[in-house]
Amino acid sequence: MYKMISRISFKMYIKKIVALCIIASFIILPFQNVYATGKVFLLNPDPVTSGMGDAGSALMSSYATGANINPASTVGVYRTVATLAVSNITGNIQYDYGSIAFLSSIGVFSAGLMYVDYQTGDYFDNAGDKITDLGPSYDISAVLNYSLPFKRFLPTFIDYGGIGANLKFIRSSLADYISESIAFDVGCIFAIPTVKYLSFGFALKNLGTNQKYVRDNFNLPQMMTYGLGFSYEDFYNIKAAIDFNNLKDYENFTSIGFSFNPVYFLAFRFGLKLGGDSIFNNTRFGVGLQFKGVSFDYAFIPTSDLNATHQFSLSAAFGNFTDQKMAYEYYLNNHFREAEANFYAKDFVKAREQFDDILAVYPDHIPSQEYLRKTIDELAKIDDYNLDKVNSYMKKADKALNRNDVVTADKYYRKALELDPTNKTAKYGIEKGELTTHNVKVEQERAVNSERIEYLWSRYEKFYKKGDLVRARDSLKYLLDIDSENALANEKIVNLDNQLAKVASDKAGEIYEQGMKYYKAGNYDEAIKYFEAVVVAAPHRLDVQELIDKAQKNIQEIAEAERLSALEEEQNKVRDQLYEAYNAGLKNYEKGKLEVAVKHFEKAKNIAEKYEFEEYYKKIKNYISKISANLSEKYYKQGFAAFRKNNLEESAALYKKALEYNPGNTSAKFELDRVADQVAQSFYEKGMTAYSKNEMEKAREYFRKALYFRPNKIEAQRALERIR
Predict the structure, then answer these.
(1) Domains of the chain, residue spans
(2) pLDDT per position as a tens digit, 495-515
(3) DSSP-derived secondary structure for 312-367
(4) Across the strands, what pairs with 651?
(5) With 654 labelled, which of 217, 527, 533, 581 sits at a CA distance of 20 to 30 A?
(6) Which residues, in sequence order, are bridge partners of residue 124?
(7) Does domain 628-723 have CATH number 3.10.450?
(8) 3-state secondary structure of 453
(9) Do 2-322 and 628-723 agree at the fold level?
(10) Confidence band (pLDDT; 50, 70, 90) for 124?
(11) How is domain 2-322 classified at the architecture level of CATH?
(12) Predicted local distance difference test score (pLDDT) of residue 47
């Protein structure tokens, strides 16, 4: 059902745009009988479209100057942008144009001011005599533009184009004669849905009142333009256009233009005008430079009869994006073109890093995926070079290791592994270096503990000579605690275990008696050492194993008694704090201040749990459980109220808070699942916008918020990992 409604809406949308274009043409066509003579209004102050032969009625523009070709072209304005354009036409006419455009929630508004100075010299009458005291000749025009883009966001985003209109107030001075008039332009751009990247444009311009000088009336130069445009931003930002222009008092002409970006910040433009008049019948070219939000454009227009025309413009975009999708596309295109330029500059390592960065934030960007594959293929072709580098690194590492320069050797082995992760020799070299470093550290630790080691070794020898194998073994165990890799100590302790296993029964009895002395004296740790020696010598002595178990149990009971005694002392110190927190919780609970109460109860619970006030601990847990359930229900209801008001972020935060108090609140969990995806996606998109602007702290904050509402949001995890 939804798909059927979407198709109907889509068709209706297209019909509306086409109908508007057709209606506009039928309303305005009667005016085609009154074409004008004011040739200056046929001149285009925009070097971007001038460099393309004045073609571009079907292309969207990022600048207000684009409205001179088609008033609907300003639907491409993505944020506030100001432009100053200067044209020197055939060396005699100075044409200056300033404009500003901004995007709002109801469309694009722009305003421009045009001034044309004809730089007139002397005036002469019909007899050839010079006329003095005459004023200058110039044109001033104020232009107001409005355009309305047509877009669909659900179920997927589609840009259909838009419509636009210009309102122009014109004041002309011819010597001392002044004329004023009002004119308007209308136009539309329609993105053809069945042909990707292709659009159609239509415009009617300079419709309005006549210009009157003394008794003579002059009509404004009305023009009807229709054309096709092609725009493919993902491949060198290629643009092509062809326009057909119908005039009456002047010969019709056709404009053809082409533009592309060999690198992301540089554009080349070429154009051709085909017409009988030498002003129109010419080729031209242009160039553009863009650095972030600042653009410089130039167009050169040669003519066969007059001097060439030079046009310049400087544009600056500023302020925030009002349309998040435009921000997304703008920064994505900038990053992609920069990476693409590095690819064609054969800087494949940097290009791969940039494509990886792009795909970390925009994982579904197909052109970046394709270029990443190409980049990997190119890198594969330079394996021979990498092999030479690996061999060079390995030689340097081996030499460094031979002179015991472990740090330098490790550095070059690791560099070799970066280029060749499967290099076993480099791995072995690193392991060998690490072993050398480890052995050095062991020797250093032995030097630090040398006195203690010597003491324990002499203690071992003393007890061993006396035949006290148990204490001799005990001395070696202490020595190995300090120097675990002492090979001789490890060997001696194995020998002692073997000797104890061969001890005769009468000797085992002596060891047993010595253990019993310690046992009866309450020195259970020492007793266990002797009993264990008896078990090694006489494994059948189960009575000795029982004594070991009893001794260990006695040690535990003594330790527990000491622990309880110490605990009682600690309880006496904190008892007042427990009572204070517990009573504060009760008072606030009775007053209905549940959040304050639960804080006090949590404090009391921590004390009761740490110092084992078991009776209080159970009571406090019950109170916390009751309060948490009430608070969870309270925040659930507030969250649902916020949801009904369409405050999704607030709603999700309240549902999360409800679940913090009671993770088992199924209603809150269900409702959170409904809104969490939307809120997380919103923060993720804000994070991407901040990331694209290089505002890393903001990006991290937004990505963390996205993960707060949806912890398993993979794209947010990848983006956050990328910028840490």
Answers:
(1) 2-322, 330-366, 383-447, 628-723
(2) 887 777 666 556 777 788 888
(3) EEEEEE-S--SSHHHHHHHHHHHHHHHHHHHHHTT-HHHHHHHHHHHHHH-TT-HH
(4) none
(5) 581
(6) 130
(7) no
(8) helix
(9) no
(10) low
(11) Beta Barrel (2.40)
(12) 92
